[in-house]
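Retro notes, item 3 of 5
We never archived the inputs for the adenosine-5'-diphosphate complex last cycle. Fixing that now. Sequence and ligand:
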Amino acid sequence: MTNTIAAASKAGSGTAALQARGLMKRFGALQATNDVSLDLVPGEIHGLIGPNGAGKSTLIHLLSGTLSPDSGQLLLGGRDVTSLSGHERVAAGLARSFQITNIFKNYTVLDNLVLALQACSGSSFRFWRARQAETELYEQARALAAECAIDASLLHTQAGVLPHGEQRKVEFALALASRPQVLLLDEPMAGMGPDETLRLTELIETMRGKATMLLVEHDMEAVFRLADRISVLVAGHIIATGTAAEIRDNEAVRQAYLGDDDTPVPTKVESHA
Ligand code: ADP
Ligand code: MG
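Structure as it came back at the time:
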């Protein structure tokens, strides 16, 4: 994996799974995103951290297509997707998970997965007989559940009554249903206790390589554990990109979080928005 990433890095921008170029977004007098350029190397987990108000959510909205940039470009696997809507970006292979929960709470876990798979199957089932297509979808849904460590005994449980940690797994599975090339993980650990956070961290670890992931997360321990590389956003601008060790030792990063103090980057630095 690391070799793949190094090789892809060397190969240059043409091979980036997702490439933001000079993204600008202004809200009135506030430059929320200031010339953000970011390359996601195929297969990597890329962490995005920054103090509260740095512009992380704004950047995620620009990437997922819920906001349009004032200027700048977004390339997905080399293809310019800047003018595509959120749905069109999902169809092109760029999916977002968490924060926006798209679980149908009154449906069972299995039916949620089937619906997600059906939604992204496009025309591939059009020529199939309905029953055969349905059987196939249910088989795929069971496989997807297993892949995301969802307990088989929970498949017929209403999604709305699952414990928080299990719901996150289902949300993760829903995002994976479209087999995205790039997955935006928007604060997956939000509202979770330490045990659930650890389990979700382990789940994301097992998904490494299945999609290129951009992980925005308050829980520094999770980010530093999972991320191949980390970018630090401060006042709308990326001030550093590097490995966990490089980011920990980066003086500008320390100062952005802690002023002139030389305390190491703490495990949790901001309150949830
Ligand atoms: P983060 O997610 O890093 O905490 P945000 O992207 O939410 O940061 O916000 C960056 C800045 O942009 C903040 O100062 C915030 O108040 C401002 N902001 C975010 N969204 C809007 C909006 N829709 N209208 C006006 N200001 C906004
Ligand atoms: Mg935010």
